Amino acid sequence: MEQCLEKASVAVMQLSEALDKYIESQDAIATLDKYYGSEEWKTDFAADEAGQLPKDLKRGVLSEDGIWNLLSDSRELNNRLRAFIDQQ
Hints:
The chain is mainly alpha-helical. Helix content is 75%, strand content 0%.
């Protein structure tokens, strides 16, 4: 029983910390959702394709999969959380 308590305590603490970070990231996720596919994103993407952006600039947001994958993962996580709560 002690092992069950220790295992569960660690899992609850880790999930609580991760959930806090996820909740704090919701504004960033909403901003990326609005940006992806917008005229601003299309302009930035075209500038990158034309070589107008600095070579050392991080451009993960301009990959067509980067934001899409994040938004998909976030939706899937939200669905998992809802399903878990509904089971309780």
